Amino acid sequence: MNLKREVIWVVLFVFFCSGCATIIHGTSQEIGISSNPSGAEASLSPGNVKVTTPGTITLKRNKDYAVNVKKDGYEDAGATISSSASGWMWGNILLGGLFGLAIDLASGGGYSLDPQNINVDLKEIQKQISHEGQ
Prior knowledge:
By secondary structure, this protein is α+β, with helices and mostly antiparallel strands. It is built from three helices and eight strands, in the order ααββββββαββ. Strands 3-2-5-6-7 form a five-stranded antiparallel β-sheet, with no helix packed on it. It has a three-stranded mixed β-sheet with strand order 4-1-8, with no helix packed on it. β2 and β3 form a beta hairpin.
């Protein structure tokens, strides 16, 4: 009987020390990156992450990312992925309290990345026509 009570307390302690957002959607998020035309190299910083378009990458939720897309014969293009507070953190007010909030903030689970999909239109580099000798 005493062991049963201790197990219940441990379960309750773990439940209230877990962040709601971390439990619901984890500490990382998949982001889709595509380009027109496809086959470009997208590099993200921080982290020096690279992917060929179209592709999907998994990123930590608690950072902002700069995206640079390159392809030979086309001008470089960029985009930004922004991190902001997730609506799931409100679950901490109802269920997890300050412990859950602290866990969500420390783990990154309390954030969400936006946009979830990036599509970049690359502009073809116009070749200069030489008019020498005219």
